[in-house]
């Protein structure tokens, strides 16, 4: 993400790409270290909202530009350009039958699956939200997210093909090179050609919004892994919450430096955004099956969880590089971004860890006790004011409750939350946050039976929707369209119209609906702020 953004900024402004690689993560690190997960949530919403608004504006402005002439004009200009695309039915851009598109789509499927499952940011946001909000939210977004590549990609991409060889083109008579295309410079050139310098400035804002929204989540996620899963688990198990948060802040800065350094390394190696698309699933997929088995199969051993991703990564990289050499004659940036080596490498990286995990687990079998997960602690920042609403019936005696494990008193700042949730039937009344010591038989589950049934109900909904979504988006929609057919003018008009409607639906789902859904909480916050200002005044 950093490299792609840096190359786009360089292509549009002339800024040195190394400076862009450093400055882009620097700003993210600063506000993430200061604001933490709360800042990430806020910037995610605001930046995504601005990005979606800019995208629909660019799409409609380009489509209605006098040099394009609307949907019908775009169709006619693409037909007139008569670009022959190898692997497409009759070499046409206006067909869904494309062998290279299928291969690229499969690589994207593996890469996006790895992105969702292996990016801790998605897990953190799920843990920080209520289950009845998480499942519908992710399901809804999985539908509307199609709007961005469908609407913007169709309009901007085809417009680029239509005007690239005409005097309207900003860099006419020069055409985009393969490296420029792979670096994502099609959209900047189209906007500059049709909408002028102001549009490219807006695109810079869009790029900044998209990168900061994504990178801030990544930074928070990695810093949490460093502070909790590494530092507190293995280096200092008795570390206080404040110490863990200090290590987390160090992790934010360290990860920011690593991202900048890694992006600079890839830049000097000649990598592009297209190369990263084929590289990402190979290095991210090996952890998918071990992660799933960690949560779903009690017989996966510690050794299997550690070794199977490493062996899967080695197998995937070996497949990728060896096929690049066999089919390309050498190993370099060009041969390693070919489709088939990247696809086969991703397949091996994805499936081989499952085999390795089962073999290693069965070689020296053991069974994991799921109650170990109940020992996980809640970390709070004592430097920030508590946002928990204390129960009106809390007393001093309530605050000094003893954990079921034996003798560890519950931290005072946690107790109001526990009492309030217990009265709502969400947790067991006698449960404390910290249960790291004592027998597993003495640990009481933090959730009530009612809450567990509630979670299982939403799990069933999520599983059913996953099957339905996969069936529609992978089979029922694309497969019938993979045939000897070139879009007619009327079909193309309907295709683009639905894509635009879908984009507006995405804006409603991502921008408007969250505000409506949280209107009561937002109202409470504003009332509290108003009351505080009145008291101080």
Automatic annotation (TrEMBL):
Any one Gene Ontology molecular-function term assigned to this protein's record: urea transmembrane transporter activity
Keyword Transmembrane included in the entry's annotation: yes
Compositionally biased region (Low complexity): 382-393
Keywords carried by this UniProt record: Membrane, Transmembrane, Transmembrane helix
Transmembrane annotation, as ranges: 12-33, 45-63, 101-123, 135-158, 247-266, 278-297, 304-323, 343-363, 462-482, 494-516
Membrane-related topology note: Multi-pass membrane protein
An example Gene Ontology CC term for this record: plasma membrane
InterPro entries, sorted: DUR, Na/Glc_symporter_sf, Na/solute_symporter
Family under the similarity heading: Belongs to the sodium:solute symporter (SSF) (TC 2.A.21) family.
Name of the protein in question: Urea active transporter
